[in-house]
Amino acid sequence: MTISPSTAEARVAVIGCGARAGIAAHVASTGVGIVTALVDPDPAARERTAARLAETPAQFAGVGELLQSGTDVTAALVLTPDDTHAEVAIPLLEAGIAVFCEKPITITTADADRMLAAAARSGTPLYVGHNMRHMSVVTTMRDIISRGEIGAVKAIWCRHFVGHGGDYYFKDWHAERARGTGLLLQKGAHDIDVIHWLAGASTTRVTGMGGLTVYDQVTDRRDNSDRTMADWFSEDNWPPLAQRELNPVIDVEDLSMVQMQLEGGIFASYQQCHYTPDYWRNYTVIGTEGRLENFGDSAGGVVRVWNRRSGYRAEGDAEYPIVGDAGGHGDADQRTIAEFLDFAAHGGATATSPVAARNAVATAVAATESLRAGSVPRDVPPLDPAIASCFDGKATS
């Protein structure tokens, strides 16, 4: 469908033209939106993004310049580095512009609370792009749980093999605590959100553990701010200790885990490693009448269910194919953008929730604090009920 500025229901500004700016190409495919502005301090980044779009949007160096320009914008995709989300999104919300914020919503619980407060105060739609809620592997597991095939959920385990971790997270700002708090948050918040969604409950108490166990041994360092990930990513960068040109500062953990106590007597664990040879997620969900587990997390994989007592049976009692998501996040990204624009333009229902996104960050922050304090358990601070009540109707887990 061809969309013109006169027919588009959502006029979208793309804020941040870096690694995630490619999702802006999904706007036109929804049939209800058009990109009218690109915002980034780097002209070259803006031009790279513009080249991927059918539209010819106006270009700006910053959000202030955009807001002062009078450009017709009704929605914005905030795709800037994680530590800037609050300072970028809050002025947009206050201006009445619906915000899609890339996940994690922020890198601190306090900033997440500030952003939700701004959305509540202004009454402006806020959507956090937890696209994993639209991944087939996750929706398949949730459907199995909803049908009662494994009974009431009591435990969830997630192992995340981050095979591209060296290239994705240790060659730029992701490697610095000051920019992202830690990878238990930056990477883990996504899986923690899924754990909460599958459980139908949020975390109240955590114990974290982990360390910087491999990449601190790589002494070849470079400031890569003049390059993009496409310039350095290669599956030939192997084994991990053979990596080169890592970020000058590396003070985040490359191996981490957290034990979680959730509401309703549910327990969960999450583990991530950034130097595995393979890259995928493995979930196990145990209920009162069985368990499920995924093998692969994209097209071609399966979710298996066991609900008969026995010894080892690799095939399980039921098997469900994972369909879609052939390109990893691609299909889920498209569904997420479509959902956001429907929400912004029509108040449509969403699978995601700003409150749930905040709770994932609060859990990850507390887990990181626990990890760095010798695994001392930490309580997860709840959201102010007055703010939470403004998002009634949106799932909090």
Name its key features:
15 strands; 397 residues; disordered N terminus; nucleotide binding; Gfo/Idh/MocA_oxidoreduct; alpha/beta; Gfo/Idh/MocA-like_OxRdtase_N; NAD; Dihydrodipicolinate Reductase, domain 2
Structural commentary:
The structure is a single chain. The protein is α/β, with parallel strands linked by helices. It has helices at residues 26-29, 43-50, 63-69, 85-94, 109-122, 136-146, 165-169, 177-180, 183-186, 188-199, 229-232, 330-346, 354-372, 385-388; strands spanning 10-15, 33-39, 58-60, 75-78, 98-101, 126-128, 153-161, 203-211, 255-262, 266-273, 280-287, 290-295, 302-306, 318-321, 378-379. The longest helix has 19 residues, at 354-372. It is globular and about 65 Å long. Mean pLDDT is 94; it is low at 1-7.
Q: Provide the β-strand percentage band.
A: 15-25%
Which strand order do you get reading across the main beta sheet?
14-13-12-11-7-10-9-8-15
CATH class call of the domain at 133-333: Alpha Beta
Low-confidence stretches: 1-7
General form: globular
Q: Give the overall pLDDT as a whole number.
A: 94
Main β sheet profile: 9 strands, mixed
CATH evolutionary superfamily of the domain at 133-333: Dihydrodipicolinate Reductase, domain 2
- Estimate percent helicity: 25-40%
Q: What is the fold-level CATH name, i.e. the topology of the domain at 133-333?
A: Dihydrodipicolinate Reductase, domain 2
- In total, the number of strands is 15
